[in-house]
């Protein structure tokens, strides 16, 4: 005897009964039973049946109406109907599996690690003792407005690659980013910030990651850059909106990159011309 099993979640149905139901043994079939899911009536090709006082409806139609996939698998033990909820898959792509309070993101952990291993200089010392580093503006737009939501953050965009809520909130808290190169890293930064994929004006530039890196700033413009040991001071002027990206060559900062060059965490501090610190970022860069 074949056995049936159904793997599914909770389904809520509203069954509206009307007159005209007729009986055949213990089975009642009626075209007057309405199946309503999320306010929409469903009309399956097989009518609902009442068997031994229980209402039976086609599971495939219900599952499809709830945005789920239905698969019928046959084995030596019988049949299994598997219902996979697309909504649950999208939910897992958006938020953590379990409710939890997360304080530090990757950037904060990097900053914390740097501070545990180093004694930072004063802003005045970095300016007076450090080297002034030239930079090149690679892109900017004063009219750009940071979106409150982007289609790239939707769980259906690239399988929810950029829809993780923790990463989006972490990104939204920052206006200062360090891009060291790489297509995947660049695309992630681009979409997480909220730049549009069909936007015609390019952000940033192509560069050799062995020779250069970029700073991406939102609502700020770079005026000066200094480096002292493993600390960088980025002097900026705040703006109401817009973005700016600047490229820095390692050689201009006194760093000669080769196969023997090692890497370690460096601290970037964004400050106003008056010396007020606005934000910090940390990144692993080659050091000589």
Brief summary of the model shown:
The protein is an alpha+beta fold and 288 residues long. It is built from 6 helices and 17 strands. It is 19% helix and 39% strand.
Layout of strands and helices, then pairs:
Blueprint: E1 3-7, E2 14-16, E3 22-24, E4 27-29, E5 34-37, E6 40-42, E7 49-51, E8 54-56, H1 59-65, E9 68-75, E10 78-85, H2 86-94, H3 106-117, H4 123-129, E11 131-132, E12 136-141, H5 165-172, E13 176-179, H6 183-193, E14 212-228, E15 231-249, E16 262-271, E17 277-287
Parallel strand pairs: 1-10, 15-16
Antiparallel strand pairs: 2-5, 3-4, 4-7, 5-6, 7-8, 9-10, 11-14, 12-15, 13-14, 14-15, 16-17
Beta-sheet strand percentage? 35-45%
- The value of Rg in angstroms is 29 Å
How much helical structure, as a percent, in the residues?
A: 10-25%
Low-confidence stretches: 1-25
| Class computed from helices, strands and strand pairing | alpha+beta
Provide the succession of SSEs: EEEEEEEEHEEHHHEEHEHEEEE
Count the beta strands: 17
Distance between the termini: 75 Å
Shape: elongated
Q: Describe the biggest sheet?
A: 7 strands, mixed
Tell me which oligomeric state these chains represent. single chain
- What's the overall average pLDDT, rounded? 83
The helix count comes to 6
Any key phrases for this structure?
288 residues; alpha+beta; four-stranded antiparallel beta sheet
Describe the model.
The chain is an alpha+beta fold. It has 6 helices and 17 strands. The strands form 4 sheets. Strands 11, 12, 13, 14, 15, 16 and 17 form a 7-stranded mixed β-sheet that branches. A 4-stranded antiparallel β-sheet has the order 3-4-7-8, with no helix packed on it. A 3-stranded mixed β-sheet has the order 1-10-9. A hairpin with a 2-residue loop joins strand 5 and strand 6. The chain starts with a strand and ends with a strand.
């Amino acid at each position: 005897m074949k056995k049936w099993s159904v793997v599914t979640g909770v389904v809520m149905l509203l069954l509206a009964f009307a007159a005209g139901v007729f009986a055949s043994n213990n089975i009642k079939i009626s075209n007057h039973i309405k199946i309503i899911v999320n306010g929409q009536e469903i009309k399956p090709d097989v009518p609902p049946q009442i068997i031994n006082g229980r209402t039976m409806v086609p599971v495939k139609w219900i599952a499809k109406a709830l945005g789920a996939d239905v698969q019928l698998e046959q084995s030596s033990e019988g049949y299994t109907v598997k219902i996979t909820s697309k909504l649950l898959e999208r939910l897992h792509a958006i938020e953590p599996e379990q409710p939890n309070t997360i304080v530090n993101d990757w950037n904060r952990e990097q900053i914390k690690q740097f501070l545990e291993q180093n004694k930072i200089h004063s802003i005045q010392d970095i300016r007076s003792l450090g080297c002034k580093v030239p930079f090149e503006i690679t892109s900017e737009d004063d009219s750009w407005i940071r979106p409150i939501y982007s289609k790239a953050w939707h769980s259906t965009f690239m399988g929810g690659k950029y829809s993780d809520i923790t990463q989006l909130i972490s990104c939204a808290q920052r206006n200062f980013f360090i891009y060291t190169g790489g297509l995947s890293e660049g695309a992630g930064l681009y979409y997480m910030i909220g730049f549009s994929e069909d936007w015609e004006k390019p952000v940033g530039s192509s560069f050799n990651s062995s020779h250069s890196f970029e700073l991406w700033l939102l609502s700020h413009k770079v005026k000066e850059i200094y480096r002292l040991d493993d600390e960088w001071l980025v002097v900026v002027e705040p703006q109401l909106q817009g973005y700016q990206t600047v490229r820095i060559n390692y050689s201009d900062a006194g760093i000669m990159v080769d196969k023997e060059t090692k890497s370690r965490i460096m601290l970037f501090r964004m400050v106003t011309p008056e010396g007020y610190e606005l934000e910090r970022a940390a990144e692993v860069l080659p050091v000589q």
